[in-house]
Design a protein that fits this description.
The complex is a heterodimer. Chain A is an alpha+beta fold. Chain A has helices spanning 2-14, 16-19, 27-45, 51-70, 78-90, 100-120, 128-143, 153-165, 171-186, 214-220, 335-340, 360-369, 376-388, 403-411, 424-437, 494-507, 540-568, 570-584, 595-600, 606-618, 628-642, 646-649, 657-660; strands at 204-205, 225-230, 236-244, 249-251, 254-257, 272-281, 288-289, 294-298, 304-305, 312-313, 323-331, 392-393, 421-422, 442-448, 459-462, 467-474, 478-481. Chain B has a domain at 31-194: 3-Layer(aba) Sandwich (Rossmann fold), CATH 3.40.50. Classes of the chains: A alpha+beta, B alpha/beta. Chain B: GO terms for molecular function: ATP binding; ATP hydrolysis activity.
């Protein structure tokens, strides 16, 4: 019974990282219950049934239990349900929502592993539970990308529990320790194995209309109620446009079912806030579904989501009166953090920096606009000011976001059509082009700013509220909105921005006048400025430190296993231990020498030990010496080590030579 | 676990005492030669025969007679000469004029200890007669088999072959001796004691009788059951195989030789107070038991090698069974 308790506790500790793969605390009790039930069932089976019988009953029970639990949520028969559950889990959000279908594969795994561990307790070796613990720990590390146990505390706990239950036989904890150490070191690595790469998130190519041109239409019907919402005061996002061709902005075309798509291409910020908002659709049509932040979940089952932006699409189209709730994550950076934040570079953000055939004048204008800014954040604030100053919002202004329209918007001769005048479309896209030109990863969002709450608790969003704004990605803080139209409704606080602007103004006046002179003779800088690559903390020192340690750990473990094997072998083992000692101290006896002859050249208790060993090996009774041989072996060891300097002795425990002997 | 009936430790302790007693008794006549005495006793208790090979005057005969004295029972001595006939050894049928019947008159081999002195001075025919008795333990005269007493130990002495007037024993017959050993000259201290006037050395008559033939025969039967673990047996077969593979030898160890080795190992182990054999027993007995059974090639002989050298090499080559987990 004690064994079962120990095994259950061991597995429960090892399952902690796995349970972190699901959000909330539901997974912990579920897994604990699976472990307890598995052990109770195996214990109840007792010794009446063979191990094979117990396994052949309980494992299918676990699998079918998983099927019955999840059969409503996953279509198909038992096989399909079980087969699809793991890919579904791997393509779900991270951590996965604790729904029955997503929790099922974890619970089934825990149950089956616990059954195996409990059945293995019938043997004498007690190897099963530690190995099962390693399996669960590894599964947890794989599911969470090694994030669940960053400091190896759970691994230490697992080893501690294993040792506590099994202090007498050192074999399993040693293997376990080595394996857990390996898992803990290898899994969180930069190029660690990621099981999610093995499954393709289900995505669909959805034809979506570009909502930017609609801005003018909505502005033309300012009083039309597009939708109403109940929830915190947050901007509502309709569509996210990340790809720019030089002529127009486009939204992503690939959408997948919510909860089954890949993680976003750029990780969300460290400081986020979750918000839940209830929407009631009014005159808003099209397929874009309003949401808040990066969508986590929605009450509409057939809504599709763009993994990177979290924008929602309803392929069947919106209908008046449609009521739904959306839960989303909003980045909440602090001003101080933003001021120091960098922007990422490299292939991951290439999409957000693309400016095909950028006209020189735009690049030069952007460069001069930020030339006194020191950090990416200051550049972003400076550009906001550059775009806003001397330009006025005008609902009648021509639409469009091509280079030509932006050039006209920024540099057009006063009085000409569209010069200095634009809708939110022109402000946002001009900002995005300029920001990309100086290396800030930028995208354009179509949506609605926060509106005040009405008396009935609803916030009514009308046509006049429709707008667009740019968002800049900062390392570690996510996508931060900026507002080049008014300069107010953006991520950083107004005070922080004013501080930046004051500092910039004290250095030099912002280039708010268009460059009417001929372009300078010197070549302008490259249109796309590579953003400064933030020094990513390198894992190489860790790897370099770990690589030489691994063979040492391995040798230690192998020698430890050999020692514990010898310890179980009694007197003969004690004698082999002494022989190992002679080998590592460079006094390996000739193979023809029998034990008494070897012992005759050794310190005092050795002949007695050799005699006991011979007796154990060759007498009909076998080993009956009890603990005496190992006491003698320790005395011999002390006597042999006495004459050897310490700097030789430190190598003894990892000397591989004894391993070559049978 | 080959033998189901095993020899217990108490029995071994009793044997050890007996062995020491016999050894001490023999040593009163032959000082300072305890290892040789022990070997002879091994052969005695293993039910085999001993060939003592040494130059004249080293105490071969004294040893043989001392063993006979300590054993009690009957001991006879046959001095082999070139004109000795087989019937002089085995006995012969004679006509008894009083009863008018043919009667078998036993020869000197009808004894517990037979000292065959200078066996290689007799012609091959006479040697063969003795060797047949050694193997069969019966004498067949006129179609009637006569059993020799039990225990039956032949202690043959032989002068080194290169001395004049000797006939070399054939290999097949040498194989019948369980072990061969030399005695060697005594160490100077012992020799001094022997030479001192009034010393009892060599006085075989003063050797006390400490046991009886029946007790020895019983011990011998019991010791045949002593436990020899499989690794030891494998070690012995490995050693035998190594002698057969050695290219200096024309004839390696026979299976009979290896069986004799096992028997001797059993007694040697018991004589050291163990109820099981260890590799050291094998190593100690390998040369005495096997050396006289091996035949060197002519090249090896010319190169000056001896079978003892070859066996020493074999011991070096073959890995000894180390105590290990079972």
């Amino acid at each position: 019974m004690k064994r079962f308790g120990w095994s259950a506790v061991l597995l429960a500790v090892a399952a902690v990282p796995l349970a972190q793969g699901w959000s909330g605390a539901v997974a912990y009790p579920v897994f604990a219950a699976a472990i307890v039930v598995a052990h109770a069932l195996v214990a109840a089976a007792g010794s009446r049934f063979g191990g094979g019988t117990v396994l052949s009953v309980l494992l299918p029970v676990g699998l079918f239990g998983g099927y019955f639990a999840a059969r409503g949520a996953i279509p198909g028969g038992p096989l399909e349900v079980l087969r699809d559950s793991v890919p579904r889990l791997l393509t779900a959000a991270r951590p996965a929502p604790p729904s029955v279908d997503l929790l099922m594969p974890g619970a089934v795994l825990v149950f089956c592993v616990a059954v195996l561990a409990a059945v293995s307790l019938r043997g004498a070796r007690l190897l099963g539970p530690p190995l099962a613990a390693v399996a669960l720990y590894a599964a947890g590390a794989l599911l969470t990308g090694g994030q669940a146990d960053p400091y190896g505390l759970v691994a230490v706990g697992v080893v501690a529990v294993a040792l506590a239950g099994w202090v007498r036989v050192a074999e399993a904890p040693l293997i376990l320790g080595a394996v857990v150490a390996l898992v803990a070191v290898v899994l969180p690595g930069a190029n660690a194995f990621e099981p999610r790469e093995l499954v393709r998130p289900p995505v669909a190519d959805v034809q979506v209309a570009n909502p930017l041109p609609r801005l003018a239409a909505w502005a033309a019907a300012p009083e039309t109620e597009l939708f109403r919402l109940r929830g915190p005061q947050l901007p509502v996002r309709l569509a996210v446009l990340a790809d720019y061709t030089g002529a127009s902005w486009r939204a992503s075309a690939l959408y997948g079912p919510l909860g089954a798509v890949d993680a976003p291409d750029l990780p969300p910020g460290q400081r986020v806030e979750e918000a839940s908002v209830e929407f009631v659709v009014g005159a808003l049509d099209g397929t874009w579904l309003p949401g808040v932040g990066r969508t986590v979940s929605t009450s509409i089952g057939d809504a599709l989501v763009d993994a990177d932006s979290g924008a929602l699409v309803l392929p069947r189209g919106l209908a008046p009166g449609l009521r739904y709730t959306v839960r989303g994550v909003v980045d909440q950076p602090t001003d101080e953090a933003l001021a120091a934040a960098g922007v990422p570079g490299g292939p991951a953000v290439r999409r957000y920096l693309a400016l095909p055939n950028l006209p020189t004048e735009l690049a030069e204008y952007a460069r001069r606009g930020v030339e006194s800014a020191r950090t990416p954040y200051e550049q972003a604030v400076a550009l906001e000011q550059v775009v806003r100053l001397d330009r006025v919002p005008d609902a009648e202004a021509p639409t469009g976001s091509s280079y030509a329209r932006i050039s006209q918007f920024l540099f057009g001769a006063p009085g000409s059509t569209g010069a200095g005048k634009g809708t939110a479309e022109q402000f946002a896209t001009a900002y995005a082009v300029l920001a990309r030109a100086v290396g800030l990863p930028t995208r354009v969002v179509v949506g609605f700013p926060p509106v005040p709450e009405g008396p009935d608790g609803y916030r009514v969003v009308r046509g006049i509220d429709a707008t667009a704004w740019p968002e800049v990605y900062f390392d570690g803080w996510g996508w931060i909105p900026f507002d080049p139209v008014s300069g107010t409704d953006s991520g950083p606080s107004a005070a922080a921005k004013r501080e930046v602007l004051d500092r910039l103004a004290s250095i030099t006046a912002s280039p708010t006048t268009p460059p009417t002179d001929a372009p300078p003779l010197v070549q302008p800088p490259a249109p796309v400025v590579e953003p400064p690559v933030a020094a990513e903390p390198s894992r190489w020192p860790v790897v370099l430190a770990v690589v030489p340690v691994l063979p040492v750990v391995l040798l230690l473990a192998l020698r430890g296993i050999r020692r514990s094997r010898l310890r179980r072998a009694g007197a003969a083992g004690a004698w082999r231990h002494v022989l190992d000692l002679l080998v590592v101290s460079g006094r390996a006896p000739a193979p023809r020498l029998a034990a008494p002859e070897v012992a005759s050249s050794l310190p005092a208790p050795a002949p007695r030990l050799a005699d006991l060993a011979d007796r154990a090996a060759f007498s009909p009774e076998g080993d009956v010496a009890g603990a005496e041989p190992w006491l003698l072996a320790r005395q011999v060891r002390r006597a042999v080590s006495r004459g050897v300097p310490w700097y030789r002795r430190v190598w003894w425990p990892i000397d591989p030579r004894p391993l070559r002997r049978r | 676990m080959t033998a189901t009936v095993q020899v217990g430790e108490a029995e071994i302790a009793a044997f050890r005492t007996l062995h020491a007693r016999v050894g001490d008794a023999v040593e009163t006549a032959l000082r300072g030669k305890r290892p040789v005495i022990d070997l002879v006793l091994v052969s005695l208790f293993a039910g085999g025969h001993v060939l003592l090979e040494d130059v004249p005057g080293t105490g071969k005969t004294t040893l043989a007679r001392a063993v006979a004295g300590a054993l009690g029972g009957m001991s006879r001595r046959v001095q082999f000469t070139p004109d000795l006939l087989p019937s002089d050894v085995t006995g012969t049928s004679v006509y008894d004029p009083q009863t008018g019947q043919i009667r078998f008159r036993p020869g000197p081999v009808f004894a517990n200890v037979v000292l065959a002195d200078e066996i290689n001075r007799a012609a091959a025919k006479t040697q063969s007669a003795l060797l047949e008795v050694m193997e069969e333990r019966t004498v067949t005269v006129d179609g009637v088999a006569h059993a020799v007493p039990d225990p039956f130990l032949v202690v043959a002495t032989q002068n080194p072959i290169d001395l004049d007037g000797t006939y070399r024993l054939p290999e097949a017959q040498l194989d019948r001796f369980m072990l061969r050993t030399a005695i060697g000259y005594p160490e100077s201290d012992h020799e001094l004691a022997v030479l001192r006037p009034g010393s009892g050395a060599g006085a075989v008559g003063s050797v006390p009788t400490v046991t009886s033939p029946a007790e020895v025969a019983d011990c011998s039967r019991r010791l045949a059951l002593l436990h020899v673990a499989d690794p030891i047996l494998r070690y012995i077969t490995d050693l035998g195989a190594a002698t057969r593979a050695d290219d200096r030898l024309r004839l390696g160890a026979s299976t009979r030789g290896l069986r004799a080795l096992v028997r001797c190992v059993q007694v040697h182990a018991a004589a050291h107070g163990r109820h099981f054999a260890v590799p050291t027993d094998v190593q100690r007995l390998l040369v005495p038991v096997l050396a006289h059974r091996l035949v060197l090639t002519r090249e090896a002989q010319l190169a000056g090698a001896s079978t003892e050298d070859v066996l020493a090499d074999v011991l070096d080559r073959v890995e000894v069974p180390r105590p290990t987990a079972r």
